């Protein structure tokens, strides 16, 4: 029964195949009689009747013809099978094929399978000889291999190839080409080796196929280099097709120097060769070379085609060169191909790069024909010019008018959604992507990654990346670039490490992103390793990578290396010059920045706004203002750059950096239209001059006028709150950062942690701290300095060693915090040991800040002679901070003569420094030399030097209350002084004896004690105890160092009232509780 069913099925399908060729069929009443065929069943050469029941599958057909022909040489019939009702011979079948109305079938004998467009027809024709045991000719077999490859049936193509009794070069070529088409690049290479081993002559077709395979694989560069060797050895470079394939191969791997060598060695070049090299340079980001090639091509009389013009026009847009763009546009019009859709599309994109949106719209509206790329180009123009509504409207019209959209469409419209304001549209389009089933499209996924990173949603980007079924190099590059954008450099380098582990080939974008992640001295070693990889991979001559190397070394403080890389670059562009000038600016090398700027102008390069921003950023000293800053401001006005928003902001910053905050304010308030960047510049200027209250007022004004905050606004706000010690404002800014999605940004997170540390909230700081393996050096430094500032000196040391264990590299700031902790904690020997190891073990050069810490360390411990000797032998010139540290130590230990020397050195560099007079006066007062004290006060009056008044403040119910010495101006002054009297009485009962050496006036002891009780920190303490809950922590801030007697009072009061009191002065925190202080009475 089963056999009968199988035979029936075979007969039905046999009928279908014959019907394709109009072979004789007879039948009646729905019953079909199939003739003229050889059925491989028991019933052979007979009529077979069956009811036709679809669906019919061509692979089930069992058929072979009888007879001989060129295309189908048949074997003899089996014995006993040549009887029965024989129908028309094979000649009839062949005749049916030749006369068939379908040209694909009628031309089969002469053209083979090459023109077959329907797989079912091709398989049916193949069935004609397979089931009969006949053999196709070599020609027909070759075309059959092509056909199966075309339809994606590579296994069927390989079976045909393997069963061929005879093969020629075309057979091998077609099979290799089939493997390439299906992406089986390794199989293509293996088959080529077998072909070559059998002695077949190499030809341009197979070489071109292999080079295409190795280009697409992204990991077979060595194989491609070997093929290049064979090309040279066999003299195949004369073949333009082979030469052009080599150009494409080297271009895909970004080895442009080798591509250029091949191009110059090619004996014959056509327009495709020229265009291929242009595309290589364009893909490598070297658009200037594209233009040079275009000009040379025209000089040699080569006519441009549409692909040439498309590449050149795109390069003009990328260079933002409107004059050149309009020149090329004239050539296009002269050539008469401006109506070509691809050329028109590139013109639209070029105008978009020029921000000429109206011109782009004009070209788009006057196109005779638009394709999907036209719509995509127009959407991109709107997106790149941040016209979100227009971009979305164009997308909507495209869906209505054109109907079809693709991955590029969605990627283009997603570009404009990469901000917090437009994120809702981006999420909506993401939903559309999922609805259309395109969430597996790698191109769209890559754009979504970028969108989420740009809008500060790195967690969403990570989730999407982990879910991606397919990732290409752009996916990995997007993750690296996104992490760099958020300041997560360690995560970016981990992505690079994964790429290396997988053996993925990298391009110039990969290296540029990786180098950007190393743009901090913390990652200098990693940057040098990546530089080595750049050289090994042949990208050291790539312009974009060269620019990234100059930037990286500049930001790591290695300007000599940056300059050497700059000088060794075979070509330079304006970006290269800007990178070098920016490096000098970052390292405060004003003279070198100006000299490079002059060289730039001598090279006939026109500076742009970035050039001027970088030069302005190199001015940081008041002496630079008249010498350099103002003349450059005049140059900016003459060249018309003063209207540029970014240049104006840089001028505000420059004047502030050079000490002229008034000019910064004048420029700021003179601007009619202020952008968020302008506001940020002014906030930063005030913060730099310690005008913290003004900085906070500006932030409040920003919020009132609906100016959008960004990571820089929030970071500056946290810094202001931290330095004023206003925890509530800092908490409000932290909440705002979370609401706006900036809380995960590297700089915002670290600024928030620093704010909590400086406001005394160590628990909140520790909650925000990343896990040790994910901490940046900045995070470690904030943690270490916070513990040191709060008097947890042993914990600070432990943090330093934990930092080393986790592989983080200490820097200049790390050792300043560590040495400061040792100084305030009395850890003299440990501090000296750390200082000694700083340079020898960790390679951190000695800076003036480290020397200040060592002088303070020795001075606090009473080792004044050693401190003086250290100053004499310091590797850097001592400044007023060094002498001020020594002077403060002289006050503590009563060393008048050394104090006088320190004061004279301070006044030598800054005659109006009030601290020198005050500290030396205190030294004399402590030693009872009241005549000297009086003489110092008289000199201060004659020199018009005003002593900085001491003040203390605290925040009660979101209101700041500030007190000066003996302040009577407060509305509740009477209650405050009554509370002070009450405290004075209670602590005397506990054994308090005033230390009148801190009363720096020549009066009797009783008056000295009264003066001590007028100190601002005691007034703030009394007010705080009156107006805060009894079980709450009391936080008080003072602008000058707390006096020793007040320190004793605070300890006693904390024990009497049973409360925690935190007092912060400019040097550290004092945590008072149960009669003790966290400093251990050593500060």
TrEMBL record:
Residues 1-27 form the signal peptide. Keywords: Repeat, Signal. Residues 991-1083 form the DYW domain. Transmembrane segments: none annotated. The keyword Repeat applies. It holds the Pfam family DYW_deaminase. PPR repeats lie at residues 137-167, 168-202, 270-304, 441-475, 573-607, 675-709, 776-810. InterPro entries: DYW_dom, E2_motif, E_motif, PPR_At4g14850-like_plant, PPR_rpt, TPR-like_helical_dom_sf. The keyword DNA-binding does not apply. One of its GO terms (biological process) is RNA modification. PROSITE patterns: PPR (PS51375). Belongs to the PPR family. PCMP-H subfamily. This is Tetratricopeptide repeat (TPR)-like superfamily protein. It comes from Abeliophyllum distichum. The lineage of its organism: Eukaryota, Viridiplantae, Streptophyta, Embryophyta, Tracheophyta.
């Amino acid at each position: 029964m089963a056999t009968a069913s199988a035979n029936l099925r075979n007969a039905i399908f046999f009928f279908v195949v014959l019907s394709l060729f109009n072979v004789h069929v007879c039948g009646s009443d729905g019953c079909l009689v199939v003739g003229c065929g050889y059925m491989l069943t028991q019933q052979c050469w007979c009529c077979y009747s069956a009811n036709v029941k679809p669906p019919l599958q061509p692979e089930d057909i069992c058929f072979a013809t009888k007879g001989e022909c060129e295309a189908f040489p048949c074997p003899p019939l089996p014995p006993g099978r040549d009887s029965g009702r024989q129908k028309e011979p094979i000649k009839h079948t062949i005749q049916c094929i030749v006369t068939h109305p379908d040209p694909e079938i009628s031309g089969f004998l002469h053209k083979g399978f090459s023109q077959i467009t329907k797989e079912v027809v091709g398989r049916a024709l193949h069935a004609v000889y397979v089931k009969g045991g006949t053999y196709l000719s070599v020609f027909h077999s070759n075309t059959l291999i092509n056909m199966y490859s075309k339809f994606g049936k590579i296994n069927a193509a390989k079976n045909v190839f393997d069963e061929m009794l005879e093969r020629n070069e075309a057979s091998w070529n077609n099979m290799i080409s089939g493997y390439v088409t299906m992406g089986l690049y390794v199989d293509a290479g293996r088959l080529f080796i077998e072909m070559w081993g059998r002695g077949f002559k190499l030809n341009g077709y197979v070489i071109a196929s292999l080079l295409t395979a190795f280009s697409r694989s992204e990991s077979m560069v060595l194989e491609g280099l070997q093929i290049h060797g064979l090309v040279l050895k066999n003299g195949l470079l004369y073949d333009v097709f082979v030469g052009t394939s080599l150009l494409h191969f080297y271009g895909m791997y970004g080895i442009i120097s080798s591509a250029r060598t091949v191009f110059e060695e090619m004996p014959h070049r056509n327009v495709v060769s020229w265009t291929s090299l242009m595309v290589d340079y364009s893909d490598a980001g070297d658009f200037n070379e594209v233009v040079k090639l275009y000009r040379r091509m025209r000089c040699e009389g080569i006519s441009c085609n549409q692909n040439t013009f498309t590449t050149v026009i795109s390069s003009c847009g990328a260079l933002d060169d409107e004059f050149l763009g309009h020149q090329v546009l004239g050539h296009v019009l002269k050539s008469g191909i401006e109506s070509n859709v691809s050329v028109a599309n590139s013109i639209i994109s070029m105008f978009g790069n020029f921000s000429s949106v109206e011109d782009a719209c004009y070209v788009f509206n006057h196109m005779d024909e638009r394709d999907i790329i036209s719509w995509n180009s127009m959407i991109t123009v709107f997106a790149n010019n941040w016209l979100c509504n227009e971009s979305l409207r164009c997308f909507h019209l495209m869906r209505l008018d054109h109907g079809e959209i693709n991955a590029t469409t969605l990627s283009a419209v997603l570009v404009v959604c990469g901000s917090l304001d437009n994120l809702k549209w981006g999420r909506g389009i993401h939903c559309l992507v999922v609805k259309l089933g395109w969430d597996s499209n790698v191109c769209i996924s890559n754009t979504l990654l970028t969108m989420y990173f740009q809008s500060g949603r790195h967690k969403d980007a990570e989730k999407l990346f982990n879910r991606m079924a397919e990732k290409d190099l752009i996916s990995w590059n997007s993750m690296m670039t996104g992490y760099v954008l958020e300041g997560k450099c360690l995560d970016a380098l981990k992505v690079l490490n994964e790429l290396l582990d997988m053996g993925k080939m990298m391009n110039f974008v990969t290296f540029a992103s990786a180098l950007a992640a190393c743009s901090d001295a913390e990652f200098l070693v990693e940057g040098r390793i990546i530089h080595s990889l750049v050289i090994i991979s042949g990208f050291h001559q790539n312009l974009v990578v060269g620019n990234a190397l100059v930037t990286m070394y500049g930001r790591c403080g290695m300007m000599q290396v940056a300059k050497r890389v700059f000088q060794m670059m075979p070509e330079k562009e304006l970006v290269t010059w800007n990178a070098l000038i920016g490096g000098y600016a970052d390292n405060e090398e004003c003279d070198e920045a100006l000299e490079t700027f002059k060289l730039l102008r001598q090279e006939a390069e026109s500076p742009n706004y970035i050039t001027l921003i970088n030069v302005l950023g190199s001015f940081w000293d008041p002496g630079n203002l008249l010498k350099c800053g103002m003349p450059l401001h005049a140059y900016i006005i003459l060249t018309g750059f003063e209207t540029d928003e970014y240049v104006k902001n840089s001028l505000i910053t420059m004047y502030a950096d050079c000490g002229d905050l008034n000019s910064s304010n004048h420029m700021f308030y003179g601007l009619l239209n202020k952008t968020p960047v302008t506001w940020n510049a002014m906030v930063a200027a005030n913060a730099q001059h310690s005008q913290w209250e003004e900085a906070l007022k500006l932030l409040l004004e920003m919020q009132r006028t609906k100016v959008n905050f960004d990571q820089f606004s929030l970071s500056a706000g946290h810094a202001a709150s931290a330095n004023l010690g206003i925890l509530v404002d800092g908490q409000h800014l932290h909440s705002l950062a979370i609401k706006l999605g900036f809380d995960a940004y590297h700089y915002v997170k670290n600024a928030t942690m620093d704010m909590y540390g400086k406001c005394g909230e160590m628990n909140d700081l520790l909650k925000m701290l990343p896990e040790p393996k994910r901490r940046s050096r900045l995070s470690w430094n904030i943690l270490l300095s916070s513990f040191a500032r709060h008097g947890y000196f042993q914990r600070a040391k432990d943090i330093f060693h934990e930092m080393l264990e986790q592989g983080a590299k200490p820097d200049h700031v790390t050792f300043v915090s560590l040495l400061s902790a040792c100084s305030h904690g009395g850890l003299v020997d440990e501090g000296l040991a750390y200082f000694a190891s700083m340079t020898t073990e960790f390679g951190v050069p000695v800076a003036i800040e480290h020397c200040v810490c060592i002088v303070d360390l020795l001075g606090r411990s009473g080792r004044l002679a050693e401190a003086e000797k250290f100053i004499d032998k310091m590797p850097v010139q001592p400044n007023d901070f060094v002498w001020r540290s020594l002077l403060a130590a002289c006050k503590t230990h009563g060393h008048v003569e050394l104090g006088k020397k320190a004061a004279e050195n301070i006044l030598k560099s800054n005659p109006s420094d009030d601290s020198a007079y005050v500290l030396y006066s205190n030294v004399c007062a402590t030693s009872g030399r009241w005549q000297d004290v009086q003489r110092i006060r008289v000199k201060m009056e004659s020199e018009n030097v005003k002593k900085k008044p001491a003040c203390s403040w605290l925040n009660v119910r979101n209101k700041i209350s500030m007190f000066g010495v003996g302040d009577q101006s407060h509305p509740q002054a009477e209650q405050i002084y009554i509370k002070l009297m009450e405290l004075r009485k209670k602590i005397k009962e506990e054994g308090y004896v005033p230390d009148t050496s801190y009363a720096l006036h020549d009066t009797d002891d009783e008056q000295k004690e009264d003066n001590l009780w007028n100190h601002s920190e005691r007034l703030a303490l009394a007010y705080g105890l009156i107006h805060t809950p009894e079980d709450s922590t009391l936080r008080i801030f003072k602008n000058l160092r707390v006096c020793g007697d007040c320190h004793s009072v605070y300890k006693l009061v904390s024990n009497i009232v049973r409360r925690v009191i935190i007092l912060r002065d400019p040097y550290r925190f004092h945590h008072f509780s149960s009669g003790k202080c966290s400093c251990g009475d050593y500060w």
